[in-house]
Amino acid sequence: SLKSVWTPDGEALVFNATTNLDEAAHARVLYHLYSVKLEGGEPVQLTEGEDWSCKGPVFSADGDHIYCDYEPENMEVYNLDGIGRFDWAEGRKLGKPDVITEGFDRSVSSFEISDNGRTLFITAADAGRTRIYKMPAKGGSVKALNPDSRGVYAGLQVAGKNMVAKWENSANPAEIVRIDKNGRHRTLTRFNADRLKGVDVQPFSEFWFENSNGRQVHSWLALPPNFDKNKKYPLVLQIHGGPFSSSMDAGHVRWSAALLASPGYVVLMTDYTGSVGYGEQFSRDISGDPLKTPSLDVLEAARVAIERYPFIDENRQAATGASYGGHMVNWLQATTTHFKTLVGHAGLVDLEGQYASSDTSYNREIMNGGPPWGESTVWQDQSPSSYANDFSTPILLTIGEKDFRVPINQTIAAWSYEQRKQVPGRLLVFHAANHWIMKGEEAKYFWDEVHAWLAKYLLD
Fold it and tell me: DSSP labels for 186-223?
């Protein structure tokens, strides 16, 4: 993405760009900062390096420093996004930045500089929330304004003593809020809240457990409308995409936990190994293990939820997921008969087929320990298609025909295996959709079909 800013003297633009996008099949794509004079001409590269990228330039108010989104470029499956800081002098190359967020074990989503230039305000994912942090602009300790905040902050902006952002959580839709110095906020708008008035949306509850590998794993539970703790409810897993993402304390325009829960289900969202917001190592622990350990995490989370919450009916369980969550649904199809039914959107069924046809490929090679023709056994060992003979759980498969991230051939292949094994199933192809089903009428149809399919197997 292109972002540009004026230099302090107003005589040039500084922007980020890449010159090696044509190498994306065999190398990391690098981004660096460039400048171009107001009157035009050939851009000048300001930063260079093979082991880091720099995007999103921002100048300090006094013009003495320029900051950027900094990301190491290496053979790790995941790296934290940080903040780089350069001294600015007109006409001089910038070199390599000081990474001022070293030691902050969270990935920076965005940052703003205070008007006096002494403080940075940061948003970053942390245990299923997006929190606001502050730190000295020259580097140093990073502290949460409110370490107990719920929900998700985005679009943070600072002007003088005023700080505003968009905020939402699992029970409250997105609105504009003003945030004080202690991280407490006051809502300024009711644009969406008025439209949701009268709708019974329950706030998520959460729990942690230690998985079989000794890692602490976090989960959310979404409860249905008119929830009664004395009743028994089917359990539906909602597996997030990514994998370098997480289930957030917020609504979701494409894959809503509240909407999924609405017919009378308890929805379980687990941040399995590889998820973000739990430190760099937790995300990297998925390396060479793209599906097996994450799937064990969601199965263990289901077991723990059933043990801790008597309102969950262990005899009625389903799993759903989209994108990477869809990959895992196909892996669960291949490796367990735990669920009454499955729902998968845009999921791969063959690791090599996904690698060879997706719009991103090199990251999959890094994840799986080398190319498919190399020595890595992951390509076969963790491809759902390798275990097609074990497919048996009824499944609803959906896909957008214009999906380039998980091309339609993966879903057609999964459907072919299901049909060959005579597994009860249903296939929905949305001809105008890409990776997500975004058109209103198509989304309504999608949810009607998902609810009808789950009801067939989970509701009395």
Answer: EE---TTHHHHTT---PPPEEEEEE-TTS-EEEEEEEP
Q: Tell me: the pLDDT tens digits for 184-223?
A: 999 999 999 998 888 999 899 999 999 999 999 999 999 9
- Biggest distance spanned by C-alpha atoms of the chain: 72
Q: How many Cβ atoms are within 10 Å of 126's Cβ, its own excluded?
A: 20
Mapped onto helix, strand or coil, the DSSP state of residue 236 is strand
- What is the pTM assigned to this prediction? 0.94
* Residue 90 pLDDT > 80: no
pLDDT of 253 higher than 90: no
What is the DSSP annotation of 265-314? Answer: -EEEEEE-TT-SSS-HHHHHTTTT-SSHHHHHHHHHHHHHHHHH-TTEEE
**Long-range CB contacts (< 8 A, 24+ apart) of 112-118?**
112/156, 112/157, 112/158, 112/163, 113/58, 113/60, 113/61, 113/67, 113/137, 113/158, 114/158, 115/61, 115/158, 115/159, 115/160, 116/61, 117/60, 117/61, 117/62, 117/64, 117/65
Residues 348-367 have pLDDT tens digits of 999 999 999 999 899 999 99
Rounded CA gap, 434 and 413, in Å? Answer: 18
Rounded to whole angstroms, the Cα distance separating 460 from 454 reads 11
**Dihedral pair phi/psi, residue 97, rounded to 5°:** -80, 165
- Nearest Cα neighbor of 206 from 218, 217, 214, 215 is 218
Place of tokens 């800013």: 5
Name the residue with tokens 């289901």. 302
Over residues 62-91, the mean pLDDT reads 92
Q: How many CA atoms lie within 13 A of 129 on its CB side?
A: 15
d(Cα 205, Cα 330) in Å, to the nearest integer?
27
Q: What is the DSSP letter of 235?
A: E
- Token couple for 460: 């009395």
pLDDT at 427 over 90: yes
Tokens read off for 254: 């494409």
Q: Give how far Cα 457 sits from Cα of 59, 341, 396, Å.
A: 57, 7, 12
Q: How far apart are CA 458 and CA 340, in angstroms?
A: 7
**What is the DSSP code (8-state) at residue 410?**
H
pLDDT, one tens digit per residue, over 1-38 is 568 899 999 999 999 999 999 999 999 999 999 999 98
Residue with tokens 């039914």: 341
| Token code pair at residue 313 | 């009916």
pLDDT the model gives residue 181: 87
Mean pLDDT of 335-358: 96
